[in-house]
Amino acid sequence: MFSKEQLDRYARHIILPGVGAVGQKKLLDSRVLVIGAGGLGSPVLLYLAAAGVGHLGVVDFDVVDASNLQRQIIHANSVIGQTKTESAKARINDLNPDVKVIIHEGKLGSKGARATIQDYDLIIDGSDNFPTRYLVNDAAVLENKPLLYGAMAQFEGQISLFHATTEQGEMGPCYRCLFPEPPPPGSVPSCAEAGVFGALPGVIGSLMAAEAIKYLLSLGENISGKLIHYDALYSEFRELKLERNPNCPVCGENPSVLKLIDYQEFCGLA
Ligand code: ZN
Fold this sequence. Notes:
By secondary structure, the protein is of the alpha/beta class. The chain contains ten helices and eight strands. It has one domain (13-266): Rossmann fold (3-Layer(aba) Sandwich), CATH 3.40.50.720. The longest helix has 18 residues, at 200-217.
């Protein structure tokens, strides 16, 4: 079942109660799509690869820039100018050759998003902009996929698990249950303007990776119906209860969003 190398590599998982050989095999058979190989995508991809999640899809359209390296730890100085997908793939393969990396090069749009997420067990949104966040949320609801969400601004970050069964056995809320419509263009500062505290994506992304592995193995309690908020300046974690909104435009009783929408770029004053 496991090779000698795998028994060595996954020894700390195989002896761990709740994971074991069965759980490790489950991880190797799992398929996770990570949207964005940036600040959040870096720790998410690295920890999922290290843990032996066997199939990792990576969506990105950008190239590695020197200004990324303050927080995007999957990339390196030696690959500046390479696509982030290729850079991430090379690093993942170097970390764990068991992992099959599937590259989805380009921006996710209304045309291909549903087809892209179809093949995966769990979708992870590590994007940094509202059009992608709404698109991915809607695609996840329409394709009935669980969506692990993370977002950051300056010194604060938050995560949740959307469109997934709660511990009470009900379908949990989606992103639009909280924020039904995107903010008006120009109302949010650009990501570059706002800035991100260097180690913050490490905290938030690692929380996301832990929740992803828990979800794949049905370990402990998932965070569907909860929002975990972290403030790095005051070293404070808070948990908010989230409710499903019956008037939600995509997962509510009378949905108005029946197909995907390409919103315009909000990140930055266009
Ligand atoms: Zn909803």
